[in-house]
């Protein structure tokens, strides 16, 4: 068991306070800090801090000894790669609207772009690697997102609540076929509109949303979100697409799982995210980055339903968030102020422990021991023995445990 020193990603949509405050650094930071990465991603791997203070790249450790670091089954299934990446997300402004491909789509797209000679770091590259990118996000604070296509009947009701002369024909397009095929047809129509048409339609829709908010209408939250996105991206078809997605507000401890094809957009809040160790993203809009509409349409899942919000299933000291993703599993442990209890974490799999409140003492069956303070994380290679985790101090304690699914 060893502490990790992790990379902070300074994207413009990040917060100047959330991650520095979590880590006990001066607030505000000079620049926005959006993500804290914990793992062996080639772009920004964590550094393992030895007892002697010497730091070693987790990526290099895994590459040098995949079976020892990952375990035989995990190393074999994922070709010697740590299959997951753990993050803290500090979302101050909305991200781009995006979806991720399945394993089969990723492998095919990667092979196609390799054959075409597109550099892996090219801005128009859709598939820089051949792997899927499912993800799960668990709220630390109230967390706002758009995810998955809303039930078509409900969406028709929303569109009629903000209907304008220009919007009416699109509303009726979905009303005539209120299913996934109708949703695909409307979404495709909107994101391929000529810019001149979009420049006429969007102001109408935004004005209608203003009126709906003033009247305290049923879709107040949805309209406020559209107005926020429209102000930041006044000529972007993604603003219209946002009308089709479920608007979610997660409480602390609640999570959503985003499998392949799920169109989503994070709006605001702080969360722990675990995802497959991949960079494959198909963007829909609300970004200056590359948008490949034909490829996006191949990837997006147009199934329509309410987006499940996960509270987690009971675990040894909190909640486990089960998914069908073989790359990862996330669990959350909590102890109230002054509460005594423990988490038993068996060995055999690669693990990262992240403390987000209070502090914990981690003791191994081999006699090793280490304390993990708020904002700190720890690497447990598969070859380590089982460990016992206990809260220390008299404050509320929260710990996240990330492992591979295999």
What composes the largest sheet?
9 strands, antiparallel
CATH class of the largest domain reads: Mainly Beta
Q: What is the helical fraction, as a range of percent?
A: 25-40%
Rg estimate, integer Å: 22 Å
What does the oligomeric state look like here? single chain
Q: Could you tell me the number of beta strands? A: 23
How many domains?
Answer: 3
Mean of pLDDT: 95
Spatial sequence of strands, sheet with the most strands? 5-4-1-21-18-23-16-15-14
Structural class: alpha+beta
Distance between the termini: 20 Å
Poorly predicted runs: none
CATH-defined fold name of the largest domain = Jelly Rolls
Which properties best describe this structure?
nine-stranded antiparallel sheet, alpha+beta, eight-stranded antiparallel sheet, Phosphomannose Isomerase, domain 2, 3 domains, Jelly Rolls, 406 residues
Tell me about this structure:
This protein has 406 residues and is an alpha+beta fold. The chain has 3 domains: 2-146 and 250-299, Jelly Rolls; 151-245, Phosphomannose Isomerase, domain 2, CATH 1.10.441; 328-403, Sandwich (Jelly Rolls). Helices cover 28% and strands 29% of the residues. It has helices spanning 18-23, 58-64, 66-70, 72-77, 103-115, 152-161, 168-176, 180-191, 195-214, 220-232, 238-241, 293-299; strands at 2-5, 7-9, 35-39, 47-49, 55-57, 84-91, 97-99, 135-139, 143-149, 245-250, 255-258, 264-276, 282-285, 313-314, 318-321, 329-335, 343-345, 351-357, 359-364, 369-373, 377-380, 387-392, 397-403. The strands form 4 sheets. A 9-stranded antiparallel β-sheet has the order 5-4-1-21-18-23-16-15-14. Helix 6 (152-161) runs antiparallel to helix 7 (168-176), helix 7 runs antiparallel to helix 8 (180-191) and helix 9 (195-214) packs across helix 10 (220-232). The longest helix is centred in the middle third of the chain and has 20 residues, at 195-214. The protein is globular and about 70 Å long.
């Amino acid at each position: 068991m060893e502490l990790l020193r992790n990379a902070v990603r300074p994207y413009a949509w990040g917060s100047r306070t959330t991650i520095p405050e979590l880590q006990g650094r001066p607030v505000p930071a000079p620049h926005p800090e959006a993500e804290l990465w914990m793992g062996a991603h080639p772009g920004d791997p964590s550094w393992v801090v030895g007892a002697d203070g010497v730091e070693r790249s987790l990526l290099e450790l895994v590459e040098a000894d995949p079976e020892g670091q990952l375990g035989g089954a995990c190393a074999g299934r994922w070709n010697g790669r740590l299959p997951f990446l753990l993050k803290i997300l500090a979302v101050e402004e909305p991200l781009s609207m995006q979806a991720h491909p399945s394993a089969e789509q990723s492998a095919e797209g990667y092979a196609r772009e390799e054959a075409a000679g597109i550099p892996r770091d090219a801005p128009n590259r859709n598939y820089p690697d051949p792997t899927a990118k499912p993800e799960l996000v668990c709220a630390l604070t109230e967390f706002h997102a758009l995810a998955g296509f809303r039930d078509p009947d409900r969406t028709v009701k929303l569109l009629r609540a903000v209907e304008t002369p220009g919007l009416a024909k699109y509303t009726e397009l979905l009303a005539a076929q209120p299913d996934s095929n109708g949703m695909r047809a409307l979404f495709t129509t909107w994101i391929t509109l000529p810019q001149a048409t979009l420049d006429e339609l969007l102001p109408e829709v935004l004005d209608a949303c203003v009126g709906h908010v003033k009247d305290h209408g049923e879709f107040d939250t949805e309209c406020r979100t559209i107005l926020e996105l429209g102000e930041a991206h006044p000529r972007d078809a993604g603003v219209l697409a946002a009308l089709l997605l479920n608007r979610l507000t997660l409480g602390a401890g609640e999570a959503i799982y985003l499998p392949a094809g799920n169109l989503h957009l994070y709006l605001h809040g702080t969360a722990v995210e675990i995802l497959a160790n991949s960079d494959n993203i198909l963007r829909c809009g609300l970004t200056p980055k590359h948008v490949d509409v034909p490829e996006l349409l191949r990837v997006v899942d147009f199934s329509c339903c309410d987006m499940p919000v996960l509270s987690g299933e009971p675990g040894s000291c909190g909640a486990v968030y089960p998914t069908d993703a073989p790359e990862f599993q996330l669990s959350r442990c909590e102890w109230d102020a002054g509460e005594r209890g423990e988490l038993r974490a068996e060995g055999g799999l690669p693990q990262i422990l992240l403390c987000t409140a209070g502090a914990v003492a981690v003791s191994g069956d081999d006699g090793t021991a280490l304390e993990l303070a708020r904002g700190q994380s720890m690497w447990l290679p598969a070859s380590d023995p089982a460990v016992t985790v206990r809260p220390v101090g008299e404050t509320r304690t929260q710990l996240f445990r990330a492992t591979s699914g295999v």
